[in-house]
Design a protein that fits this description.
261 residues; 2 domains; D-Maltodextrin-Binding Protein, domain 2; alpha/beta
Length: 261
């Protein structure tokens, strides 16, 4: 892990955000929620928080939502989509939940920010022939980003003009291999997890400059049923209190990530 990385906010200790959640009223906890208003969860392939492969779905946020469902007496399913499509589904309204979503000023009023998952650092990744350390050099390169993420706009705001979107991190890596792009801008925690899954492939990719960090959340559509949202918040309090959340963090986050909590 690179020295000087931004510390990740732990789910259990996310400061004022967690304190606010724990202080919310519980009056709607006992209200019966119609089946049509129950949360429908969607996610993207963004490890270590959520992913789905031949072995089935997994990830810290995926398991968290399943465990919270159990506390509510429900068998919860999560539908995985390309990230841009998952974002569009949540934008269409209803009781739809989405994770893991970066919370940015541009998105603030577009979602209800239900549960904080942490803080991830954004960084450039490239092959040995690409200068990934200096912003002026990077501005002249073709930069790949995840379609539907906030990163494309963030780069445009900083003067990047050649930004290429891809459906997922695997496609970004293939584009890098074929020299369709020169570098990738992504969450270092998520992208490094993808590299580790590919084994030896990680050695050919270097991590470079970071332009900052962003908080990620489980979010819902703004039209989410209020009683339903409160049920999920109470289930979250339960998994914090009984230590389940800490167990999931130990399972899915690397030792270096745990040290940044």
């Amino acid at each position: 892990m690179r020295p000087g990385r931004t510390r990740r906010l732990p789910l259990m200790l996310a400061g004022a955000a967690i304190a606010t959640l724990l202080a919310w009223p519980l009056a709607s906890w006992a209200v019966e929620v119609p089946d049509s208003e129950r949360m429908h969860w969607v996610a993207g392939d963004l490890p270590p928080y959520a992913w789905s492969d031949s072995a089935g779905p997994s990830g810290l946020a995926y398991e968290l939502v399943r465990v919270m469902g159990e506390r509510m007496g429900r068998k919860v399913t999560v539908d995985f989509y390309p990230w841009a499509r998952a974002v569009r589904i949540a934008q269409q309204g209803g009781s739809v939940g989405l994770f893991p979503l970066a919370r940015t000023p541009e998105r603030e009023s577009d979602y209800r920010w239900l549960l904080p998952l942490g803080k991830v650092r954004q960084a450039f990744f490239g092959g040995p022939e690409t200068d990934v350390e200096h912003i002026e050099s990077l501005r002249a390169q073709r930069i790949g980003v995840l379609r539907g993420s906030f990163t494309g706009r963030a780069l445009a705001d900083k003067g990047f003009q050649s930004v290429v979107a891809a459906v997922d991190y695997e496609e970004l890596l293939r584009m890098l291999d074929r020299h369709v792009i020169d570098a990738i801008y992504a969450s270092d925690e998520m992208f490094n997890f993808t590299l580790r899954k590919r084994g030896g492939r990680a050695a050919a990719v270097r991590q470079g400059l970071s332009l900052g960090a962003v908080e990620i959340y489980m979010a819902t559509a703004t039209t989410c049923n209020e009683a339903e949202a409160q049920r999920w918040l109470q289930a979250y309090r339960d998994v914090v209190a009984d230590g389940t959340l800490a167990r999931l963090e130990r399972k899915y986050l690397s030792g270096a990530a745990a040290e940044r909590r």
